[in-house]
Design a protein that fits this description.
- The structure holds two protein chains of two kinds.
- By secondary structure, chain A is α/β, with parallel strands linked by helices.
- In chain A, about 65% of the residues lie in helices and about 10% in strands.
- Chain A has 23 helices and 14 strands.
- A six-stranded mixed sheet of chain A has the order 7-11-12-3-13-14, sandwiched between helices. Chain A has a five-stranded antiparallel sheet with strand order 2-1-4-5-6, with helices on one face. In chain A, strands 8-9-10 form a three-stranded antiparallel sheet.
- Chain B is an alpha/beta fold.
- Classes of the chains: A alpha/beta, B alpha/beta.
- The interface between A and B is large, with 86 and 78 residues.
Chain lengths: ~800, ~180
C-alpha cells in the first residue's frame, strides 16, 4: 500500500494560533492563504512530524528551533496521521526549544523526505546554489554530486577501480603485498648474484687459461697429464723428498773425497819410497845388532836387579837409555841406604853398654833418697800451718780444742808449746821438700837413659839380617858396575831405536796412504756405478776421476734442483687449477639451483604479471563500465527527465539545463551543470544562461527530476509556494505537470500557494477527473484577533457538464 | 503528413482520442481543426492550424468556447495547440487568459520541437529506477574478454566489500602466484 498522509492537526505552532485540523487524504492538497497566515507553518509542521526536525527552516535560521511555539502559547503540538506506513500516527510537542515525540519516519525515510520530497519556500530560490555548494572542504563533495553518486551506485565500480589501481604500479604493489616486494627483491638479488658469479667465473676462467699456459711447458718436461687431478696425484706419487738431499750428499761426498785426496797428496807426497824402505831396513838391522849386544847386556843387568826392583822398565820395550838411567838411580839409592843401615847398627851396639852402667848408678841413688823421705812421715807442713792458724785463738792456757787447762800436762804455757811445735813442724817440712826434688831429678835421668837405650836397641840389626844386607849390596854393586859400563852403548842404542822408529812410521804412513787411495777409488767406482757414469778406467788418475765425478754430481744436483723447482711450480699451478675447477663445479651447482629458483620466480612473476594485467583489465573495465553507466544515467535518466520537465514548463526556452557529462576517464564523478541548446551544442552554466524565471524553473524541475530519478520510497511532494515568480505561461504548464505527477505518477501533492488566481486556477486544473479522484483545498486566514481561521473543501468527482 | 496531422498522431499515440465535433453548447456551435481528450482527464486539447484562416477568428472562437464552458459550469481545462504560422503576440496573450496555449509554430525543425511543445500534454517518460540502478557487474563483464571474465569473478565478488576487499583479492592472488617461488 502506498504511503499517504491523511490528516494533520496543528496547535499553536509558529504562525498557527489555536488548532488547525487539515485533511490530507487526497492525491492533491492545495493550501492557500496570504503570506504570513501559516502556510509555511503547516508545511513545516508536516516536516517536523515526519522527520523530527526542521531542516528547511534551519537553512535560513539556525536558532529557529527556539521560536517554534506560537508567541501567544506555551506549547505547540502537531499530530500527523499516515496510511501505509509502519506507524499510523504521531504527536509531537514543542515546549521552549525542546521537541518531544517520535517522528513518523525512520532515518532513511527522514533523509529521503528532506532531500527528495520537501521543497521549502526558502529553499527554492537558492536550490541550485545549495545543490552545488560543497558540504565539506572537498569542492567536489556537493549534494548534487553525492546524489548522483548514490544514484549511480558506483561504489562497487569505484571499489574495483581503486582496488585494482595498485596493479599498474610496482611501488604500489610493493606496498600492497609484502610478498610482491620480497619476490621483486629476491629476483633482483638472484639476478645480481648471478651477474656477480658470472663475472667471477669469467675472471677465474681467464686465470685458469693463464695457469694452463704456464703449466703447459712444464707438463711435457714433467710428463704430466692434462687433467689437473691426475697431474696432481702424479706429482704427489713421484715426489721424492730425499732426492735433493741425496744429490747434495753425493756432491758433498765427492768433495769430501777430493779434500781427503788433496790432504794426502800435499805433504811429503813425493818422498822417496825406496830410501825410506832402505832406512827402515838398516835401522831395523841396527836395532837388532844393538839388541843382541849391549842391549842384551843391559837387559841382563836390569834383570839381575829386577828381584829387588820389580818395577824397572824393560829396555827392549822402552828407550834403553832411560831404562839404564832409572836403574842406576835406584841402585845408587839402595846401596846408600844399606850402607847407612849397617853403620848405624854398629854404633848403637856400642852406645847401649855405656848407657846400662849409668842407669845402675842412678837407681842406687834413688833407693837411698826413698828411704830418707820415708823417715819424715806424715804431713809436718800441713799440721804446722794448722797449728799456726790456731795461735791467735790461744790467749790463755785453756785449750781451745778441749777446753782444758794445758797446765794439767805441762808447765810450759800452751802458747809457748804451740809456737815450739809449729817451729818444729816447719823445719821438717823444708827438708822433705828438698829430698823429693832430688828424687824427681834422679827419676828423670833414669827415664832419659832408658829411652835412649831403647832407641839404640832398635837400631841394632840382627846378625842374620846383616848378612842379607851385605849380600844384596854385593849384587847391587855388581849391577852398578855393569850399568855404568854400558853408558855409551846404551845411548847409541837409544839413537838407533829412535831412527828405526821414525823410518817405520814413515813407512807405515806410506802404506796407509796406499790403502786410503784404494778406498777412495773404490768409493768413486761405486759412486760412478750408482750415478750411471762410465766406469773408472785403470789409466784414469784419482784426481781426474774426482774432477769428473764432481762435475757430474754437481750437474746432476743442479738438474735435480731445477726439476724440483719445476715440480713445485707445477704443483702450485695444478693445485690452483684444481681449486679453480672445484670452485667452478660448486659454483655451477649453485648456479643451477639459483637458475632453477630464478626460473621458478620468473614463472611466478609471469603469473603475477598476468594477475596484474587482469586486475588492470578489471580496473579498466570498471572504468569503462562506470563511464557507460555514468553516461547512461546522466543522459538517459537525469538529463532526459530534467529536460522533459524543463521543456514542459518552459517550452520556448532554447537553452535547456543539463548535467555536464563527466569526461571519460575522469577518476571521480562530479555533478556539474551546464546548458544545452535544443538545436545542439553545450553552453554555460544555467545561472549564466537562463533568465531569473527560467532559472527558478530550472531549479524546480531539477528538484522534481531528482525526485523522479529515484525509486519513490515516499510518493510525496510537499511544495511550499513553488511558483512565486513564474509567469503565466509557466504557471499553466506547471499546473499540467502537477496533474501528470498526481494522476499518472501517483504522487501525493501538498502545495501551498499564496496567489489567489493561481490557487483558483490550480483548483480548477486539478479537479477530480474520474471516479475516486479527490482534491482538497484549504484556505487559511487570520481572524482580526489574530487566531488562525481556515476553510477546508474536499472536492469529489462529478461528471462534467460537457460530455466529450 | 501535415504538421497538424503529426501533432494529432503524437497525442493519439499517448492516450488521446478525438472528440466528436462540432460542440453544441446551448445555441452555439463550436468547431476546431481537431479536438482531443484523454481518459480520466478533463483536458480538452484544441488543435488549430494557423496557416489557414485568421488568428482573430481563432481567438474569438476560443474565447467564446471558454465562456460557454464557464457558463455551462464545466471544469474542463482547455489547451490550444497552434500549428503553422506564428500568430501575433497580442493574440497569444489574449488567448492565454482563457487557456493553455502551445504555439508549436511552423514545425520546420521537425518532431523534436513538436514533442517539446506538446510535452506538457504527454505522460512523463520515466525509466524504471530498478533498471537504471543497473547491473554494474554485467556492465563490467561487457568490457572484459571471455578469458578475463572467467578469472575476474573474484574481483567482482570482492567489489561488494569495497576497495579494501578488491585490494585484498589482488593481494591474495599475487601472493598465491608467488607462494611457490618464495617458499
Amino acid at each position: 500500500m502506498m504511503h499517504q498522509l491523511t490528516e494533520l492537526v496543528v496547535s499553536d505552532f509558529r504562525s498557527i494560533k489555536g488548532t488547525v485540523t487539515i485533511p490530507l487524504d487526497a492525491p492533491i492538497v492545495l493550501i492557500h492563504g496570504p503570506n504570513g497566515v501559516g502556510k509555511t507553518s503547516i508545511a513545516t509542521a508536516i516536516e517536523l512530524a515526519l522527520t523530527g526536525d526542521i531542516a528547511g527552516l534551519k537553512r535560513s535560521d539556525e536558532k529557529v528551533q527556539n521560536h517554534l511555539v506560537n508567541r501567544d502559547a506555551q506549547e505547540a503540538s502537531i499530530a500527523l496521521r499516515m496510511a501505509g506506513g509502519t506507524r499510523p500516527e504521531t504527536t509531537m510537542t514543542i515546549r521552549g526549544g525542546a521537541i518531544r515525540g517520535m517522528p513518523l519516519l525512520d532515518e532513511a525515510g527522514r533523509t529521503f523526505f528532506t532531500d527528495r520530497c520537501y521543497l521549502s519556500q526558502s529553499t527554492l530560490g537558492r536550490l541550485l546554489d545549495i545543490y552545488q555548494a560543497p558540504t565539506a572542504r572537498d569542492p567536489s563533495n556537493t549534494p548534487l554530486t553525492n546524489f548522483v553518486k548514490s544514484l549511480l551506485g558506483l561504489d562497487q565500480l569505484e571499489a574495483l577501480i581503486d582496488g585494482t589501481f595498485p596493479a599498474g604500479h610496482k611501488a604500489r604493489m610493493s606496498k600492497l603485498s609484502g610478498d610482491f616486494d620480497r619476490a621483486d627483491q629476491l629476483e633482483g638479488r638472484l639476478q645480481g648474484e648471478q651477474r656477480e658469479i658470472d663475472a667471477l667465473q669469467r675472471n677465474q676462467d681467464a686465470e685458469a687459461a693463464k695457469l694452463l699456459s704456464q703449466v703447459e711447458p712444464l707438463r711435457s718436461t714433467l710428463g704430466l697429464s692434462e687433467d689437473p687431478s691426475a697431474a696432481a696425484s702424479h706429482l704427489a706419487e713421484t715426489e721424492d723428498p730425499e732426492l735433493l738431499a741425496r744429490h747434495e750428499a753425493r756432491v758433498n761426498n765427492v768433495i769430501a773425497l777430493q779434500f781427503q785426496w788433496s790432504s794426502f797428496t800435499t805433504d811429503e807426497a813425493q818422498a822417496d819410497r825406496a830410501a825410506l824402505e832402505l832406512e827402515e831396513a838398516e835401522s831395523a838391522r841396527a836395532v837388532e845388532a844393538y839388541s843382541a849386544g849391549p842391549g842384551s847386556r843391559l837387559a841382563a843387568a836390569i834383570t839381575s836387579i829386577r828381584t829387588i826392583f820389580p818395577d824397572l822398565a824393560d829396555p827392549a820395550q822402552t828407550d834403553p837409555e832411560e831404562a839404564r838411567a832409572g836403574a842406576i838411580l835406584l841402585v845408587d839409592r839402595e846401596i846408600n841406604r844399606l850402607d847407612t843401615l849397617l853403620a848405624s847398627a854398629q854404633t848403637a851396639s856400642r852406645s847401649i853398654g855405656t848407657r846400662d852402667q849409668s842407669i845402675s848408678q842412678h837407681q842406687a841413688r834413688l833407693k837411698l833418697l826413698n828411704n830418707q823421705i820415708a823417715d819424715i812421715a806424715g804431713d809436718a807442713a800441713g799440721l804446722g800451718q794448722a797449728l799456726a792458724a790456731l795461735l791467735p785463738h790461744v790467749t790463755d792456757d785453756i785449750c781451745p780444742v778441749c777446753d782444758r787447762p794445758f797446765n794439767e800436762v805441762s808447765e810450759v804455757s800452751l802458747r809457748t808449746h804451740l809456737s815450739e811445735e809449729v817451729a818444729r813442724l816447719v823445719g821438717q817440712s823444708e827438708k822433705l821438700k828438698s829430698l823429693v826434688a832430688e828424687r824427681q831429678q834422679v827419676q828423670t835421668q833414669v827415664a832419659e837413659l832408658e829411652r835412649g837405650r831403647s832407641a839404640e836397641a832398635a837400631r841394632v840389626i840382627a846378625p842374620v839380617d846383616v848378612t842379607a844386607h851385605q849380600q844384596r849390596l854385593a849384587i847391587l854393586r855388581t849391577a852398578k858396575g855393569e850399568l855404568d859400563a854400558l853408558a855409551s852403548d846404551t845411548a847409541e842404542g837409544a839413537r838407533i831405536r829412535s831412527r828405526h822408529a821414525n823410518a817405520a812410521r814413515a813407512i807405515a804412513q806410506l802404506r796407509l796412504r796406499d790403502s786410503t787411495s784404494a778406498e777412495i777409488r773404490s768409493t768413486l767406482t761405486t759412486l760412478a756405478e750408482t750415478i750411471g757414469e762410465p766406469a773408472i778406467a785403470g789409466t784414469e788418475t784419482t784426481q781426474d776421476v774426482l774432477t769428473r765425478l764432481i762435475t757430474v754430481t754437481e750437474a746432476a744436483q743442479k738438474a735435480a734442483i731445477e726439476t724440483h723447482t719445476d715440480r713445485k711450480i707445477a704443483a702450485d699451478l695444478v693445485t690452483r687449477l684444481k681449486a679453480l675447477a672445484v670452485e667452478k663445479a660448486e659454483r655451477a651447482a649453485q648456479t643451477e639451483v639459483r637458475k632453477e629458483k630464478l626460473a621458478q620466480l620468473t614463472a611466478a612473476q609471469r603469473t603475477v604479471k598476468r594477475e596484474r594485467d587482469l586486475a588492470s583489465s578489471v580496473g579498466r573495465a570498471a572504468t569503462e563500465a562506470r563511464s557507460a553507466i555514468v553516461g547512461r544515467v546522466f543522459n538517459e535518466r537525469l538529463n532526459a527527465i530534467w529536460r522533459d520537465l524543463f521543456v514542459r514548463l518552459a517550452p520556448n526556452e532554447p537553452f535547456v539545463p543539463a548535467f555536464m557529462l563527466p569526461a571519460a576517464g575522469e577518476k571521480t564523478v562530479n555533478a556539474l551543470l551546464e546548458t544545452v541548446h535544443r538545436d545542439g551544442g553545450t553552453y554555460g552554466r544555467p545561472g549564466a544562461m537562463l533568465s531569473a524565471g527560467n532559472l527558478n524553473t530550472a531549479a524546480l524541475t531539477l528538484f522534481l527530476a531528482l525526485h523522479l530519478s529515484v525509486r519513490p520510497e515516499l510518493p510525496w511532494l510537499l511544495l511550499d509556494d513553488p511558483v512565486q515568480s513564474m509567469d503565466e505561461l509557466h504557471v499553466a504548464q506547471f499546473a499540467a505537470l502537477l496533474r501528470t505527477l498526481a494522476k499518472r505518477e501517483h504522487r501525493q501533492l501538498i502545495i501551498a500557494i499564496h496567489e489567489r488566481p493561481l490557487f483558483e486556477y490550480l483548483s480548477l486544473e486539478l479537479s477530480p477527473a474520474f471516479v475516486g479522484d479527490k482534491l482538497i483545498t484549504i484556505e487559511v486566514s487570520k481572524s482580526p484577533e489574530g487566531s488562525t481561521r481556515y476553510k477546508t473543501n474536499v472536492i469529489g468527482f462529478e461528471p462534467d457538464r460537457l460530455v466529450a | 503528413m501535415t504538421p497538424l496531422e503529426r501533432a494529432i498522431a503524437l497525442l493519439k499515440d499517448n492516450g488521446y482520442r478525438s472528440v466528436q465535433q462540432p460542440f453544441g453548447i446551448g445555441s452555439a456551435t463550436y468547431s476546431f481543426d481537431a479536438v482531443l481528450t484523454a481518459e480520466q482527464s478533463l483536458d480538452l486539447v484544441l488543435l488549430q492550424d494557423t496557416t489557414l484562416g485568421s488568428s482573430e477568428r481563432i481567438r474569438r472562437e476560443v474565447l467564446a468556447f471558454g465562456r460557454s464552458l464557464d457558463v455551462l459550469g464545466s471544469r474542463r481545462t482547455l489547451t490550444l495547440v497552434l500549428v503553422g504560422q506564428p500568430i501575433d503576440p497580442a493574440t497569444l496573450e489574449s488567448l492565454s487568459q482563457v487557456c493553455r496555449v502551445l504555439p508549436v509554430g511552423p514545425l520546420e525543425a521537425g518532431d523534436a520541437r513538436l514533442r517539446d511543445w506538446l510535452a506538457v500534454l504527454l505522460p512523463l517518460e520515466l525509466p524504471d529506477p530498478a533498471d537504471m540502478q543497473g547491473d554494474w557487474s554485467s556492465e563490467v563483464r561487457r568490457h572484459l574478454s571471455p578469458d578475463e571474465i572467467r578469472v575476474a569473478n573474484g574481483y567482482l565478488a570482492a567489489a561488494e566489500q569495497g576497495e579494501a576487499g578488491v585490494r585484498l583479492e589482488l593481494r591474495k592472488r599475487i601472493e598465491r602466484a608467488l607462494s611457490g617461488a618464495l617458499s
